[in-house]
Amino acid sequence: MNQNTQPVERVVGLDAHPDSFTAALIRGPIPAGAVVEKVYNQVPLGRLKSWAEKETKVQDLIVLEASGNSFYVVRTLAAIQRRALVLESCHLGKLKEAHANNDRISAVRIGKAYLAGTAKTVWVPDRRTQERRDWFHAYRKAVKRTTQVRNRLRSYLSDQGVRVPKAKLGESVRTLHPWTTRQLQVISGLLLERRHAEEQRAHWRSLMAQEVIEDPVLLSLVRLCGIRDIVAFALGCLIGDIHRFDHPKKLVSYVGLQPAFDDSGTSQWQGGLSGHGRCDLRALLIEAAQSIMRSTSPLAKWGRRLMAKKGSPKLAVAAVARKLTVSIWYLMMGRWSPLEEIDVHLTSKVVKIVGQISARGLEDLGKSRKVLCLEVYERLKTGRKYTPTPPTNQPPPDPKKSTLLQEYGLG
What we know:
Blueprint: E1 11-16, E2 20-27, E3 35-44, H1 48-55, E4 61-65, H2 70-78, E5 83-87, H3 89-94, H4 103-116, E6 121-122, H5 127-159, H6 181-214, H7 216-221, H8 229-239, H9 248-255, E7 259-262, E8 269-273, H10 279-293, H11 298-310, H12 313-332, H13 344-355, H14 359-365, H15 369-382, H16 403-408
Parallel strand pairs: 1-4, 4-5
Antiparallel strand pairs: 1-2, 2-3, 5-6, 7-8
Helix pairs in contact: 5-6, 5-8, 6-8, 8-10, 9-12, 10-12, 11-12, 13-15
């Protein structure tokens, strides 16, 4: 059964929807012996606070399935001192009864799944992390939309026998062919969609760049080869509170970069990735590792030696991404030494990040790009302090396994 620091009097299974919720009050230590005291069906979501204050106690534990508004429900209950946990929807979905299912059954099932101890809990991000995630998801949608519109435009031109390189796929396509009036209307509409998607993409990128240069933790990640504003911002919003990972291996597992193996029966296989974890964050770190492999950094040299030894570029890139994740853990924990000088590579990276900030963003900050670059240099040097003492209840790092600190100049 799941462990809690506070005693639990009852478990309340909550099946939440956008407009209503159904709650089942369950008493008992295990699913087989649990008794359903009462079920509240189809209660309007607007009455969640008043219902919880009246029908539940501080000692009760409310559990619900991960969904669109589950974090909102948890924060609403926390405001009235009610404990709530979010359970992974993947496991609960497998428990769904195909022959008979409704909100009452779902609420009881959610509560008993917690009592069984088989459903993993989901970390509820704080409000700032949640808002950053909203920004990042909006940016990703804008990138996807830009690609879709660009491909639609190229496809339409190809249908008319016109082939245009990506670099020239702009307003000049109007003059590349004797278009009819109706064809020009279609092209104008596609160009308008593309321009709007690119504006949205630039808008979110500007906001993310501002967030990175103003946050000392995110800015410190820029020191690493292969990481710039987008990856640094994604790390901040998707990882959230780094202290929930008390060891680098746990962060590697969260991302899904730990090696997988199969030692069942007579077959033995080792290598590859586990396939679990945050696929969006893993994809970004794999891209960062590919960028590192093209550089001249110490980690790139290590990766190329591994590739020559193993004969697998994908394995080497994954290994570099895994080492990069370990160094990210050290930096976000604050265990690094201050910079003494800004080298040419970091200078170029800062200039590019500041270059992503729009004119409106610079106006809001009240600074020019040159002044802002100089301020960022100083923040990189003096923004955070080195803390050699490891956090409480955490074993000191093994010297044999901390060579990455020397490779990056972090120790």
